[in-house]
Amino acid sequence: MKIKWDPKILENCKYPVYLGVTLDRTLYFKKHTNKLKEKLFNRNNLLRKLANLKQTALTLCNLTAEYCIPVWARKDWVALNRARTKVGRTGDNLADGRLSDNAACLCEKQTQTMDHILQGCTLGPSCSNEDLLEANDAALQWTLWWRDKI
Ligand SMILES: [Zn+2]
After folding, report:
1. Does 103 share its domain with 148?
2. How many Å lie between the centroid of ligand 1 and the Cα of residue 106?
3. Would you say the pTM of this structure is higher than 0.70?
4. Ion ligand 1 contact residues with beta carbon within 5 A
């Protein structure tokens, strides 16, 4: 069917867009959902890159903070800073960075996060974020236990 609008003949459009929604003849909205999926995928990629950027910035800060500390205390200082900034080599961080397929903790908790090893893990001592900031005895005990593991 040909429809004429003034001098022009209007062309048939298989997937017209109306108010931002891509329509189709059957109204299954498959084309619209595919476009939406692609849009969300791109935005998720951007968010993932921004999250990695934050982690990179924290790592650079840690490297700067760790520069020139005495060698004998380096491991402890590194572990303490990793715990403070939550960027240690925990199961979930390794899995996020695709360095490991398994995010589980050795205590068999499904996901080993920094918060888990700070306060929920049965394998080692507990420590609060405040302890880490104060670098008190609880933080020292925690650091001695986890420094070679994270
Ligand atoms: Zn655990």
Report:
1. yes
2. 6
3. no
4. 105, 107, 109, 121
Which residues, in sequence order, are CB contacts of 117 under 8 Å at separation 6+? Answer: 90, 105, 123, 124, 146, 150
The verdict on residue 3 lying in a domain is no
Total count of residues recorded for the chain: 150
- Overall number of domains in the chain: 2
Domain assignment present for residue 76? The answer is: no
* Amino acid identity for residue 149 in this structure: K
| Structural domain for 28, as ranges | 13-68
Which pLDDT tens digit goes with each residue over 14-53?
Answer: 998 888 888 888 877 888 888 888 888 888 788 888 888 8
How many Å lie between the centroid of ligand 1 and the Cα of residue 77? 22
Residues 6 or more apart whose CB falls under 8 angstroms from that of 92 comprise 103, 111, 112, 113
In a domain, 83, yes or no: no
